[in-house]
Design a protein that fits this description.
- By secondary structure, the protein is of the alpha+beta class.
- It has three domains: 219 residues, 2-Layer Sandwich (BirA Bifunctional Protein, domain 2); 65 residues; 97 residues.
- Helices cover 51% and strands 13% of the residues.
- The protein has a six-stranded mixed beta sheet with strand order 2-6-7-5-1-10, with helices on both faces. It has a two-stranded antiparallel ribbon with strand order 3-4. Strands 8-9 form a two-stranded antiparallel ribbon.
- The chain is elongated.
């Protein structure tokens, strides 16, 4: 199966560059533009006309609503409810040339403190392969047309709140096969909203379609999740599916320049890749929680509970991954499997070392425990052999030592449970710790 890269990136959004043949003839990288090599995947109508027609019903509704408010204000004035005459300028209607009114809209960038133009429409460049793939006929013109045409149709279905203004494939350029997709976010607002009952914000449109911020699959992980990446990831899924129909496997996470011999046929499908990366991140998060606790000099029972929970989460995640292994055939028809266990070897080693440390501390704790018990036994013997009893309430002293002993017992019990739950030791192995139980009971009776 042929391997090939794919591209989904934001474009500048130049209507003239995309559709005007006379203008394109003046560009250096364009050769003999005509209707045969500048292919309109969607019939071209000027963007100004499309956007004005798109917004007209909403402007109609707004103007009718404004007229009703103006008439209602006059009725209140005539009935004496208000004293100031309504002014027409306070009830201004919108012009139907939405394009001209908003083509130069700007907003303040809170980071740069500079005004930036709000694009009246947005653009994407969706491409397949590179110039070498095209020149070597590794990817034919017909294949590119089929893949990109079907991709645009699937994009329409996947993003119903994006109004597609134009989609143009440029075969008159020397570079890779690509299409310029221009669109305008477009969604209904609540009826009680002020202004037009339609929104054009990209982020809100994505949220209303059910998308959440994601990290880019293609351009690396562990970055700030963005809604734009959620859109790109979805389009990459669509591209991968359409390329596969033409027996082309998508090549990703690789640079032909840096890794010319990379066999990307061993890559997982994009959805599997994303799932694997998410699982790795989940394992790393739980691993870090456990390490933070077991590296402490002192650990509370609550910390131990958190650490055990983290280890259990790691175990369940590993089981989930292993019970649904990912695999695919490489170029030689050999099944290539993917495992996350190798990434955890150092962590498993660290866990073993920490458990050995805990067992060593248990021995020290046991030794200290018997020191406390011996002190209590000595005090009891002293009281029994004392001829003159000073006016001291020895019950208080005994109670204090018993409290200390009780605390030691509780701590030892928690340590025993932790060791039994997280090591190969059995209850029988720990019974040796309690070989002086009778002496403890005798001390308590005294």
């Amino acid at each position: 199966m042929i391997e090939m890269s794919a591209t989904v990136t934001a474009g500048k959004g130049n209507e003239r560059h995309n559709h005007d043949l006379e203008y394109r003839a003046t560009l250096d990288n364009v050769h003999n533009p005509n209707t045969a090599n500048v292919i309109e995947l969607i019939s071209y109508v000027s963007y100004k006309e499309q956007i004005n027609n798109l917004m007209k019903p909403f402007i109609d509704e707004y103007n009718q609503r404004t007229e009703k408010r103006y008439k209602a204000a006059w009725e209140r004035f005539n009935s004496g409810l208000i004293k100031t005459k309504p002014r027409k300028r306070d009830y201004k209607k919108l012009d139907y040339d939405y394009w001209s009114d908003h083509i130069d809209d700007k907003k303040l960038n809170p980071e740069t403190k500079k005004e930036e133009i709000i694009p009246i429409f947005r653009s994407l460049i969706i491409g397949i392969g590179d110039k070498n793939d095209r020149d070597s006929i590794k990817l034919t013109e017909e294949q590119a047309k089929t893949i990109l045409t079907n991709t645009i149709e699937e994009v329409k279905k996947a993003f119903p709140s994006f109004y597609i203004l134009g989609a143009t494939m440029h075969l008159d350029e020397e570079g890779f096969y690509h299409v310029h997709l221009d669109y305008k976010p477009f969604y209904a607002k609540d009826l009680d909203a002020k202004g037009l009952l339609v929104g054009t914000g990209f982020d809100t449109a994505m949220e209303k379609m059910g998308f959440k911020p994601e990290q880019s699959i293609i351009n690396g992980r562990d970055k700030v999740p963005l809604l734009f990446n959620a859109m790109r990831n979805k389009i990459y899924y669509i591209l991968e599916e359409q390329m596969a129909k033409e027996k082309i496997r998508m090549q990703y996470n690789v640079s032909k320049t840096k890794d010319p011999n990379k066999d990307s046929s061993k890559n997982q499908r994009l959805r599997d890749w994303q799932e694997t990366q998410d699982k790795v991140r989940e394992l790393q998060h739980e691993k870090n929680k456990a390490i933070d606790i077991i590296e402490k000099d002192t650990t509370s029972p609550e910390d131990v509970t958190v650490a055990i929970t983290a280890l259990e989460n790691i175990d369940s995640t590993l089981k989930e991954v292993m019970e649904s292994p990912k695999s695919r055939l490489d170029k030689n028809k050999v099944v290539v499997t993917f495992s996350l266990l190798d990434q955890l070897q150092s962590f498993i080693k660290l866990i073993r070392e920490k458990f050995a440390y805990i067992l060593n501390m248990l021995d020290i704790y046991k030794e200290n425990y018997w020191k406390v018990q011996n002190e209590l036994d000595n005090l009891t013997d002293h009281l029994e052999n004392c001829e003159v009893i000073p006016k001291i309430d020895y019950k208080i002293i005994l109670k204090s030592h018993e409290k200390e002993l009780s605390s030691a017992n509780e701590k030892l019990a928690r340590l025993e449970k932790f060791v039994l739950d997280n090591s190969n030791l059995t209850k029988k192995d720990l019974d040796a710790i309690k070989n002086n139980k009778r002496s403890i009971e005798r001390g308590r009776e005294r």
